[in-house]
Structures are given as C-alpha cells and as structure tokens.
User: Fold this.
Amino acid sequence: MNPSARVRQPRRALHGVLLLDKPLGLSSNDALQKVKRLLRAEKAGHTGTLDPLATGVLPLCFGAATKFSQLNLEADKAYEATVRLGQTTATGDREGEVTQERPVAFDAQALQLALAALRGEIDQVPPMHSALKHEGKALYQLARQGQVVERAARRVTIHELTLLDWQADTLRLAVRCSKGTYIRTLAEDLGERLGCGAHLAALRRTASGPLGLADAVTLAQLEAESDPERLAHLLPPDTLLADCPEVRLDATEAGKLLAGIRRRIGLPPAARVRAFGPEARAFLGSARITAGELIPERLLSPIELRTLLEGPPSLTT
Assistant:
C-alpha cells in the first residue's frame, strides 16, 4: 500500500442539529458536506437552501434529526436584506448583468407607502433564476440558455418589512416571511413601486423558524476546533420542534408509542407534540393528539434512540 495514500476517516452515527452561520459564496450543499466531513457524520441533510450570495442561519440535520427537517423547511424565515436602488439586473441580485438604470427620486413617505403595500399576503412570480422545475428542468438552467417561461404567481405572507437604514441608493430592510418567499423578487417589486427599479445586493438570514443566529457557529470556527468542541454545538433532534408542546411518557407507554400504537391520553388536542420517554434525552419523535388519542407520526428507531441516549461517540484512531 502506498504510504502516502489518504487514510479514510471513520464515520459515526450522530443525531442532532447544528446551526451553521453559512459563509458568503458557498452553496448550502457545499457547506453541508464540509461540516459533515468535519464531524465525520454518517447521515446529514439541510432544511432548505441559502443561495451562495446569502449568509446566515442554515440548520444542518444529522441522523435522526433528518426525519424532522421538513418542519423547518415549512417554517417562517427572517432576513436582513440590502437593496440597491436604481438598477435592475437579469437575476434580481448583484450577480446578474445590469439590464436597466433609472434615477432614484422618491421621498420617505413614498418609501413607507411602498413598504406597507408589500406587507401581508401578496402574490409573487418566482424568478427565472430559481430552482423551481418546468417540465423537469430547473428554471435557472432554462434562464442560462436564454429562455423565459411563464410562471404562475404564488401567494406568500410578509409578516414584517421594516426599514433599518437608508443611505443614498441603498436600503437595509428587516424581513420576516412565510416559506417560499423570494427576497430577490421582493426587492424587485419594491423597486418597481418606487419607480426606480432595484436588486438584492446582500442577504443575511437571521432566523429559521425558532432557530436564530445566537446559537449559530461559523465554518471557520468549526475548522479551528477540536472534535469535542465541534460536538458541543450539536443541539438535540427535537430542536426542530421547539415550538411544539412536550409530552413525557413512562417506559411502558413509550414502548407502545415506538411500536406505532395509539394511546388514550388526558391532554388537549394538538397538531404536533414532542414525545419523550422517562430518560432526560429520550426523544421518541413527533405525534399528534386528536380526540384524546396520542397518535404517533415520525419516530426514532430503537438504534437511533439508543445512540442518542449514549451520546455522540468519540472518533476512533
């Protein structure tokens, strides 16, 4: 064997959520793969993408936590967006070619009226430079070929759209919105309402559902840390269900739930709950309470539960 050949590092079963502060210029999948290699995790996924242009909160799921990634994908998101006024680009952001320039001539009142018009439920036409599919092809692939296809408008909700700063031809905005919202499109629509055009110059996600930047770690920090320090950033798998009420079961009832058996329970109805066994870290999975019954939904396997209770394994040498 060639002594200079690279030794394949062992993978291990990890179960939890790591909040990454994604750096600029890196795709979500590239960021995921880098962290997966650093943690030497067997199974990993992310909860929706952030464009390379964007930075900020990207929840990465490991092991059993991947079963609940859809919940965060459907959650509201919060951003800080920098909007460049007076220029429209081919992609709706700073990476595209400038297609039109117009003078910036509006006052503070006009800006507040334009922001107010974009709050609440609005219809958005998805941009051509997006990952949505048309006849099996991603829209951005068609856009790169010079094609433009008709896209149906989609209803989204802008819960918050607040001016943070205004300097000459640049706005900085706080946005909290429903899933499926395109901040590039929001910037373009604002520019049209102001009569000057606009594009998205920078974007930072500050929250994804209940998860915020306060608990996020940078890639550079992870690269500089030891293995125990990296593992310390792993949050429990039920972090993605932080908004759901908790139900604690004894050992017998926990075993029945894991077997997929409905149980009578003296609790009010709930669309989703976090179910736990008697041990402190014994997260069993998600369930719902309907007509006095606890109905299992997504559950951990016995192996996943045992690994979770034992804690993250150390690296072997």
User: Anything to note?
Assistant: The mean pLDDT is 89.
